[in-house]
């Protein structure tokens, strides 16, 4: 039952070097509304994940471009198996699965991309029960701009820029953070420009719409772009090609200042151990300053800028105001600053400290570096040999490409610091994430990944819009007004979710059981109700049987039965002697007396002969109550009143019968009157007993009669005719309490 309140999502990040599984969990929006505070209502859904829920395998999906039939069993299946370990079985059909490929797949020909995505969707649909209603939406090669936008959502979500804007005021009404990402094949940037730049470059921005828990839409205008081929691996390939162009084609050895001194590798980065290799080799010289100079041209700063301003490779980017635009960097920005160079405890990025660490490391002989490898810590020699190039590339992209101020340097002749950058420098040490740049891996224990941004968007799309107004759906698109009836751009990409609850078969529906709650206060759906009913009925049945067996075991001895009978008999005698106190129904036999008679046998009382209650037969569709006149008397009832009333009932059924405040007990008569049509017969008692009429003022009805156990003549008693045979009653019950019908008040 506890799993009913949670939603799950699975997303596969198909990168260039491998595919990583991410699992996210969040509370069902319909249930999260229960007891939500004012702050929570104005916030986005709260997503959770755990380290154990992630798994990465190598190589990437793009390596299956020419063997698409193997991508399922040889690559995806192990990730699927890992996901099934944590997602409850009853939630799998309601759990969406996404595979979104990035730069590695973007480099493949369009034909191979299409073949791979079709095969992946077919495999997931055939071998899993995850929710996958739309192949094009769930399995796709996403653009770099989309990847950057998802990363921007994830960063601001974790930092609190969305839910607590008042605590993240950077000045000029700005409260969000910029996002930088660098992988193996591409690099992305995403940020919200200041108000001036946003107005100037409105057509270049993306309209992003989210939805808070109370159903309110929240919009942001974000710029995002990507540099394909500017990831560290692709940049390394371009760098090696530049070395080949720099030296004569006859050279078999190429000096490489970006490799540690003494390290020899092939052009592909494979270490060389022979003295006379057959192919061209790279020889490390360990000169980091020269490495910076040789990698700088790869930024393409000399490319023409057709839409000013531009940053890298002639691509347009609105001017960045570092007074309010503070960036976090993930992936290679983190690994390259906190990998082999240490700095894992650094709270912020300091250019001076970082550059010194890199120079000290890269100037070492390779033999000294390799001697520090610890097999127990699983050091990767490849990371060590590529660390110097990655560091130089990061420094160039970050500072010369994007223009992030070099924190820690007092004299910066090569950088023209703006007033905004100076303001960032002044406050960098006191405001944490307000540094112009800070590499991060996790925030509040959650890994910063663009996949989180995608799932935040999906979860926000499950929240019902306020007052059912779905004119503002969750998603993103161009920052223009669309031509459709809804207020969305024509190229709007929806979140892929629906705010209507989902049945197990994947069909959307409205919950019709919103008023029912489980033990935790959450609404129950129909399946919950049925499951609870089955559980409770089964448990109740076994409890009843156990209690019945216990009572039968206790009554197995005669002395116990007689002891209980004596107590019951004493109580019923007091009942009969005080009818006004005990017997408000005016009946001369109590239910307890009947029970003792059945359990312990009959016993004559001083009040007259013994008798028993006999059920009368009648048609259920004839039970209708008639009008009853109110009694003009005091309303009190006595034996004397009963005797005189019963003897006159045969001739005065319409006058004497029913003289009580309330409804009198109906009688079976052949003509009209109050009792007509009821199928019952009222018989007067003999020997000082009480009649079945109630004149105490209670609204009652009885579907039985009092009958003497003495032989009766065919003429009946008191002039009233009726059936005499007990066998003639089809409704007679055989249980000890079967002769007593509950009083039905109307």
Automatic annotation (TrEMBL):
<feature type="active site" description="Proton acceptor">
    <location>
        <position position="147"/>
    </location>
</feature>
<dbReference type="GO" id="GO:0004382">
    <property type="term" value="F:GDP phosphatase activity"/>
</dbReference>
<keyword id="KW-0812">Transmembrane</keyword>
<dbReference type="Pfam" id="PF01150">
    <property type="entry name" value="GDA1_CD39"/>
</dbReference>
<dbReference type="InterPro" id="IPR000407">
    <property type="entry name" value="GDA1_CD39_NTPase"/>
</dbReference>
<feature type="region of interest" description="Disordered">
    <location>
        <begin position="701"/>
        <end position="746"/>
    </location>
</feature>
<dbReference type="GO" id="GO:0005524">
    <property type="term" value="F:ATP binding"/>
</dbReference>
<comment type="similarity">
    <text>Belongs to the GDA1/CD39 NTPase family.</text>
</comment>
<keyword id="KW-0547">Nucleotide-binding</keyword>
<feature type="region of interest" description="Disordered">
    <location>
        <begin position="627"/>
        <end position="674"/>
    </location>
</feature>
<protein>
    <submittedName>
        <fullName>Nucleoside phosphatase family-domain-containing protein</fullName>
    </submittedName>
</protein>
<keyword id="KW-0472">Membrane</keyword>
<feature type="compositionally biased region" description="Low complexity">
    <location>
        <begin position="627"/>
        <end position="636"/>
    </location>
</feature>
<dbReference type="GO" id="GO:0006256">
    <property type="term" value="P:UDP catabolic process"/>
</dbReference>
<dbReference type="GO" id="GO:0045134">
    <property type="term" value="F:UDP phosphatase activity"/>
</dbReference>
<dbReference type="GO" id="GO:0016020">
    <property type="term" value="C:membrane"/>
</dbReference>
<dbReference type="GO" id="GO:0005794">
    <property type="term" value="C:Golgi apparatus"/>
</dbReference>
<dbReference type="GO" id="GO:0046036">
    <property type="term" value="P:CTP metabolic process"/>
</dbReference>
<feature type="binding site">
    <location>
        <begin position="184"/>
        <end position="188"/>
    </location>
    <ligand>
        <name>ATP</name>
    </ligand>
</feature>
<keyword id="KW-0067">ATP-binding</keyword>
<feature type="compositionally biased region" description="Low complexity">
    <location>
        <begin position="651"/>
        <end position="669"/>
    </location>
</feature>
<feature type="transmembrane region" description="Helical">
    <location>
        <begin position="538"/>
        <end position="555"/>
    </location>
</feature>
<keyword id="KW-1133">Transmembrane helix</keyword>
<keyword id="KW-0378">Hydrolase</keyword>
<dbReference type="GO" id="GO:0017111">
    <property type="term" value="F:ribonucleoside triphosphate phosphatase activity"/>
</dbReference>
């Amino acid at each position: 039952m506890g799993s009913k309140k949670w939603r799950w999502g699975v997303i596969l990040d198909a990168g260039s070097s491998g595919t990583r599984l991410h699992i996210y969990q969040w509370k069902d929006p319909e249930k999260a509304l229960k007891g939500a505070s004012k702050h929570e209502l104005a916030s986005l859904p709260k997503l959770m994940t755990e380290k154990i829920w992630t798994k990465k395998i190598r190589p990437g999906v793009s390596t299956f471009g020419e063997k698409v039939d193997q991508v399922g069993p040889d690559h995806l299946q192990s990730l699927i198996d890992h996901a099934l370990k944590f997602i409850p079985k009853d939630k799998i059909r309601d759990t969406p699965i996404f595979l979104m490929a990035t730069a590695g797949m973007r480099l493949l020909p369009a034909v191979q991309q299409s073949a791979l995505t079709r095969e992946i969707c077919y495999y997931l649909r055939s071998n899993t029960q995850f929710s996958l209603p739309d192949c094009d939406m769930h399995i796709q090669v996403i653009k770099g701009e989309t990847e950057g936008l998802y990363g921007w959502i994830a960063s601001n979500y974790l930092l609190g820029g969305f839910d607590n804007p008042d605590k993240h005021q950077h000045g000029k009404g700005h409260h969000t953070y910029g996002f930088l990402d660098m992988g193996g094949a591409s690099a992305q940037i995403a940020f919200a420009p200041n108000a001036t730049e946003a107005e100037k470059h409105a057509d270049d921005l993306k309209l992003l719409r989210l939805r808070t828990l109370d159903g309110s839409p929240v919009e942001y205008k974000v710029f995002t772009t990507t540099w394909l081929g500017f990831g560290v691996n692709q940049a390394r390939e371009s760098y090696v090609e530049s070395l080949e162009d720099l030296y004569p084609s006859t050279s078999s050895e190429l000096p490489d200042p970006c490799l540690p001194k003494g390290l020899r590798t092939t052009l592909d980065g494979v270490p060389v151990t022979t003295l006379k290799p057959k192919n061209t080799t790279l020889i490390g010289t360990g000169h980091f300053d020269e490495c910076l100079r040789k990698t700088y041209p790869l930024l393409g700063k000399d490319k023409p800028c057709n839409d000013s301003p531009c940053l890298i490779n002639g691509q347009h980017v609105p001017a960045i105001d570092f007074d309010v635009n503070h960036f976090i960097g993930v992936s290679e920005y983190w690994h390259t600053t906190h990998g082999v160079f240490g700095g894992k405890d650094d709270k912020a990025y300091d250019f001076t400290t970082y550059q010194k660490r890199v120079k000290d490391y890269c100037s070492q002989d390779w033999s000294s570096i390799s001697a520090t490898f610890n097999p127990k810590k699983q050091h990767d020699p490849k990371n060590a040999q590529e660390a110097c190039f990655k560091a130089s590339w990061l420094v160039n992209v970050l500072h010369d490409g994007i223009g992030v101020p070099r924190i820690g340097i007092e004299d910066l002749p090569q950088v023209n610091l703006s007033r905004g950058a100076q303001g960032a420098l002044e406050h960098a040490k006191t405001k944490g994430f307000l540094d112009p740049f800070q590499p991060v891996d996790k925030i509040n224990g959650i890994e910063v990944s663009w996949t989180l941004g995608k799932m935040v968007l999906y979860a926000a799309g499950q929240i019902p819009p306020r007052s059912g107004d779905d004119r503002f759906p969750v998603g993103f698109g161009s920052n223009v007004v669309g031509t459709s009836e809804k207020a969305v751009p024509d190229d709007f990409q929806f979140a892929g979710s629906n705010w209507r609850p989902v049945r197990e078969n994947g069909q959307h529906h409205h919950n019709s059981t919103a008023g029912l709650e489980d033990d935790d206060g959450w609404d129950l759906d129909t399946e919950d109700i049925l499951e609870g009913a089955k559980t409770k009925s089964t448990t109740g049945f076994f409890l009843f049987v156990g209690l019945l067996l216990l009572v039968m075991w206790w009554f197995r001895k005669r002395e116990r039965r007689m002891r209980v009978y004596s107590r019951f008999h004493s109580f019923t005698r007091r009942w009969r002697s005080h009818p006004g106190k005990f017997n408000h129904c005016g009946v001369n036999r109590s239910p307890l007396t009947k029970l003792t008679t059945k359990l312990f046998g009959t016993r004559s009382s001083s009040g007259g002969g013994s008798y028993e209650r006999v059920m009368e037969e009648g048609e259920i569709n004839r039970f209708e109550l008639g009008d009853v006149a109110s009694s003009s008397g005091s309303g009190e009832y006595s034996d004397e009143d009963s005797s005189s009333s019963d003897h006159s009932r045969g001739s005065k059924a319409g006058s004497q019968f029913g003289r009580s405040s309330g409804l009198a007990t109906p009688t079976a008569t052949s003509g009209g009157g109050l009792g007509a049509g009821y199928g019952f017969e009222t018989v007067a008692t003999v020997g000082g007993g009480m009649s079945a009429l109630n004149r105490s003022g209670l609204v009652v009805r009885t579907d039985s009669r009092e009958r003497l156990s003495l032989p009766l003549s065919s003429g009946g008693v008191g002039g009233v005719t009726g059936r005499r045979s007990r066998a003639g009653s089809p409704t007679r019950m055989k249980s000890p309490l079967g002769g007593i019908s509950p009083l039905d008040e109307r």
